[in-house]
Amino acid sequence: MNLSLMSLEIVVVLLGITVLMADLWLPAERKRMLGYAAAAALGLLFLNTFTSHCSCSLTDGQTASTAGGMFIQDGLSVFFKRFFLIAAVLVLILAVEFSDRIAVGVSEYYSLIIFALAGMLFAASANDFVMLFVSIELITITFYVLTSFTRGKVVALEAGVKYLILGALASAFMVYGIALVWGTTGKFNFSELSMVSAKFAENKLFLFGVLFILVGLGFKIAAFPFQMWTPDVYQGAPTPTTAFLAVGSKAAGFVLLLRFLFTAIPEVTAHWKNLLIVISGITILYGNLCAIPQRNLKRLLGYSSIAHAGYLLLGVAALTNAGQSAVLYYLSGYLFTTLAAFTVIALVMRHLDTEDISGLAGLSQRSPLLAATLTLAMISLAGIPPLAGFFGKFLLLKAVIEQGATNHGYYCLVFTALVGVVISLYYYFGVVRAIYWSKDVPDRSPICISRPMRLAVWVCIAGMFWLGLFPNAVLKLADSAVSVLK
Amino acid sequence: MNTSDHPYLFILLLGLSAVAFALIPLGLAWLWAKKYSPKKENAIKNATYECGLESKGDAWIQFKSEYYLYAIIFLIFDVETIFLLPFAVSFTGLGVGAFISLMVFLFLLVSGLAWAWLKGVLTWK
């Protein structure tokens, strides 16, 4: 077994344990700073992935696997590992900012974020059903705790319980599915499964298994009809948790989905084109339509996150490398956009009980930087040039239209997605209106932003513009990452 | 019977046996109670505990939930034993890799225990 291939994951797990242990000896007033230290360590690990002596350094198109083929390192996994590391750094900085609202166990909160990150890193490399299940559980179980971390608040408890019950149900479906697939094919490994999956493409028992696994993954990415938990959990969870859930957990679901659909069972996936088209379309419409009446900002972003899962599924439904690379690109833009939005929410709504949109009133005077950040985030989520969201949506729709000749369902899907975009303009601009054009401004006190937080905000803004204006670098990475998929 | 001839039947059978797996023990218990504990209703029979102290008040009261921490920490030792025993039995036949991986496993569990201990979880307040 080649442990050096897993060195990144091992270091991250050790970092989590170190943070947990450091808590025991640090004086109470220094504990907050532990988050910055952890963020800095993860930042170094992220930079290290670009050097030649890291486990993530691969020459183009090379793959390596260890642990009996369970753990694979290829372009796709490296792309997502960098993605998760950036997300975790920004979320940790946000968590430090949020820590005054956590009654007990700030360091535990940091270390749980790091453990969830370890699960995501393993998910990026999972090439086996066992690895898939273990990494998903590592992510989900940590998130059960992270969701109800502010346990004095009833909404947080409600969110935690709902996530726990529905998450356990989804896991049960998934295990049952894995059992059925294993029962019919006798394979756990994706590479081995891909050799025999064509033979089983007509076997109903096998297809049921695949369907049940898709239920479990659909829960992670919040696709219709497994999206019920999203708004409640997003609303109730502490804001850094929500941010990490929206970005990290969703991306982990997508990397597993891509790997499962396109390396393990490509033949079945091709058969189920229509299923993917229908789910993608309904998810887009559901998310966008339900977001319209929302007044709570986090709940609104919860519904918008469902809609974005639908947009991302466009790229999966296209069944081409262009579509898959568009998914990766869109997720990268989504990372900066969503984290920017949640950062502003955490800072602005600090002294308020709810995250009602009216709390944004006067933000343009209280903090022009935050007002601009949230506006840019909304514009990017809506998909207006020149920001990341526009170019991502453009790539996704282009990939789907290119496939239109093979199946007319694709044209309907593009139409649905465009309708969704138009609907979304309404509620995203409702937020912008609240920032700049509110008449009733109860609070005009300026908002002070700490220096690391300011840096994180600028990173998010830079990321949104960079991905929108200079797409080539990331697009090239995404293209080479998906070359391992069929 | 070949599974590919009747795929849906097979799925149905699996589903039914899953339901039966849950319901049959319950049903058996119910039948057992019917047969061997004939109804003789009186005040003593209907008491919560036929022998022992009479329960007082409502069951819906607040009580210390700290026991759950003990249960979790007990689990550390419990799981540890499951893996340690076969490891100890076949220790002489195992290589260095097995030893290291078990030590890593022990490290992860013990670090959890040490953390809980130093946090003062084991002190009963």
Task: Walk me through the topology.
The complex is a heterodimer of chains A (486) and B (125).
Chain A: H1 7-25, H2 31-48, E1 64-66, E2 71-73, H3 75-98, H4 106-125, H5 129-147, H6 154-185, H7 190-196, H8 204-221, H9 229-236, H10 239-264, H11 266-271, H12 273-291, H13 297-317, H14 321-348, H15 363-366, H16 368-382, H17 388-402, H18 409-436, H19 451-469, H20 472-481
Helix pairs in contact in A: 1-2, 1-4, 2-3, 2-4, 3-4, 3-10, 3-14, 3-20, 4-5, 4-10, 5-6, 5-10, 6-8, 6-9, 7-10, 8-10, 9-13, 10-13, 10-14, 12-13, 12-18, 13-14, 13-17, 13-18, 14-16, 14-17, 14-19, 14-20, 16-18, 16-19, 17-19
Chain B: H1 7-36, H2 67-89, H3 96-118
Characterization of this structure:
The complex is a heterodimer of chains A (486) and B (125). Chain A has 486 residues and is mostly helical. Chain A has a domain at 278-486. In chain A, 73% of the residues lie in helices and 1% in strands. Chain A contains 20 helices and two strands. Chain A has helices at 7-25, 31-48, 75-98, 106-125, 129-147, 154-185, 190-196, 204-221, 229-236, 239-264, 266-271, 273-291, 297-317, 321-348, 363-366, 368-382, 388-402, 409-436, 451-469, 472-481; strands at 64-66, 71-73. A two-stranded antiparallel sheet of chain A has the order 1-2. In chain A, β1 and β2 form a beta hairpin. The relative contact order of chain A is 0.10. The model of chain A has no long low-confidence stretch (mean pLDDT 90). Chain B is mainly α. Chain B is flat and about 65 Å long. The N and C termini of chain B lie far apart (63 Å). In chain B, 1% of the residues are buried. Chain B contains three helices and no strands. Helix content of chain B is 61%, strand content 0%. In chain B, α2 packs antiparallel against α3. Chain B folds into two domains: 1-56, no CATH class; 67-118. Classes of the chains: A mainly alpha (486), B mainly alpha (125).
